[in-house]
Amino acid sequence: xxxxxxxxxxxxxxxxxxxxxxxxxxxxxxxxxxxxxxxxxxxxxxxxxxxxxxxxxxxxxxxxxxxxxxxxxxxxxxxxxxxxxxxxxxxxxxxxxxxxxx
Length: 102
What we know:
Elements: H1 2-13, H2 18-36, H3 44-56, H4 60-76, H5 80-93
Helix pairs in contact: 1-2, 2-3, 3-4, 3-5, 4-5
């Protein structure tokens, strides 16, 4: 499936090219939503990817909306591990970074 390939490619860009990764995730999301609808369980990792890439680029509010949607789908499909990981990501977004001393 093309959308899965886009997700895979995006995962390679996450660290060094978050804008590129976000664009790939968004294209994947459009394909998945068109094929399977807006509430399909397979949207979860793509939504999480977009959310985190938005955060990495300083757009936390926008990113949180995607993570929240992912969380809601995880709850809808009773996927506790997804719910836990997504809540952890949201918490990371709002926990200040503290630089460790050497």
